[in-house]
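Hi everyone, sorry if this is the wrong subforum. Our group has a chain we'd like a structural model of before ordering constructs, and none of us has done structure prediction before. Sequence below.
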Amino acid sequence: MDIVKIAFVGILTVLLYGLLRQIKPEIAPLIVLGGAAVILITLTDSLLNVSGSVDDMMSLAGLEKENVSLLMKALGICVVTQFAADICYDNSCSSIAAAVELAGRVGAVALAMPMIKTVAQIAIGLING
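Answer:
Right subforum, don't worry. Here is the predicted structure as tokens:
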């Protein structure tokens, strides 16, 4: 991951956004989305390396891949949701940002339901003896 490249793209995006916001305000949000897309594409290799490392650690620790996979997916939902909500907030769309955040929360809970169900069954089994 080349943090200098990512920082440069971020600064360039902000500068272009500031210029275009005054000249063509309807195009300015597209600059932000484009800059964000470039940054995310730059991060894909690093994310794949992290995913591979997590898989290696799971096998060493003897953890079930399903549970760790669910946690990684939930983390992905949280990151994407926060990213999208921040873009909405930056463009003065707080109601859309709130809806995106709610959708992310619901998605994370829905993803975790199998784990929650398993924990509830274990708890019920312990209570009943």
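For your construct planning: The CA atoms of residues 81 and 101 lie 6 Å apart. The mean pLDDT is 86.
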